[in-house]
Amino acid sequence: MTMDSPAPPVRIDPFDYEARPVRVVFGPGRITEVAAAADRLGLHRVMLIADSRAPGGDAMVGALGERLALRWDEIAQHVPIELAERARKAAAADEVDGLVSLGGGSATGLAKAIALEIGLPIVAVPTTYAGSELTPVYGMTGEQRKRTGTDERVRPAVVVYDPELTLGLPPGVTGSSAFNAMAHCFAALWSPKRDPLTSALAVDAVRSVTASLPALVDDPADVQARAGLQYAAFLAGTALGRAGTGLQHKICHELGGRLNLSHADTHAAVLPHVVALNAAPGPDWAARLDPFLGADPARGLWELARRSGLSTDLARLGARREHLHAVAKAAAGTANPVPVDAPTIEALLGRALGDEPPRAS
Length: 361
Hints:
Elements: E1 23-26, H1 34-40, E2 46-50, H2 57-64, E3 68-72, H3 81-93, E4 98-103, H4 105-118, E5 122-126, E6 137-142, E7 145-150, E8 158-161, H5 171-190, H6 196-218, H7 223-243, H8 247-259, H9 263-279, H10 284-293, H11 297-307, H12 314-317, H13 321-331, H14 342-353
Parallel strand pairs: 1-8, 2-3, 2-4, 4-5, 5-8
Antiparallel strand pairs: 6-7
Helix pairs in contact: 3-4, 5-6, 5-7, 5-9, 6-7, 6-10, 8-9, 8-13, 9-11, 9-14, 10-11, 13-14
């Protein structure tokens, strides 16, 4: 490109923009700043939500000191409604005035479920890479159904990222969690509520995942690569928190609520196929991802998942063909760039169940 042949103008579609106040603290060793974050929020009686195996849990107890009113270590994926109710009652009984969540999406999700009902501020300390800590999205499960929604009361007030806390993550959790962040990126890229900022954040998050995840396959102790994935989680969660979810998340929530499949693992198996569906018309976002995923972003995602040791087969995760119809029926009509009906979704899931390479329907 020369001065005689300038680049064509960038197309900017109409959009609305509204900032949401979240304080982010990022860097190795910054778990030590959680107590100061609680003080800054004026918290005196904190409930710590952390699995007994969560890295840094005991240190967090010591750091919170007299601020710690209650430690809750019962965590479950998809946040069962009865668990959320018991945790809320415990928080109310101990007159808790704030929440600190330490762990993956299940710990963050339980904190959100409590905040949804009693309006407590959250200091989130994520130890995986999904990015849900930056969103106002919540989910709870009961009677084999997952209830999801959006409410600003559940968006954490402070998020503390410390990549050293993720050093012990098993490879499978590392990879699937990174694909959860990838799902957030794509949802933001094709959301009708997208704007130039969410798109830029999502593209840079994809860049960071595609650079950092292969590095961790080679060297799980690479702190810089782990920081790269947490940076991607920060970007992806911020983008999703503004743009909202769609078909990809609806499918994975249905698989989780009905079959109790891991949310992150289902993203790794399903996302390449949803991307193939939506990339068929050759949208602008696909071209922006070419440097990181190649000309076929769906195939690039599928190959990245396989190189990372992740299952791209829903059957290996516990799904069966007889489950697909109900999931597809529930997801039909969900917001998506390409309108979808139940048969289209069922065919898409069939390819994910058969571990086929992604292709447009």
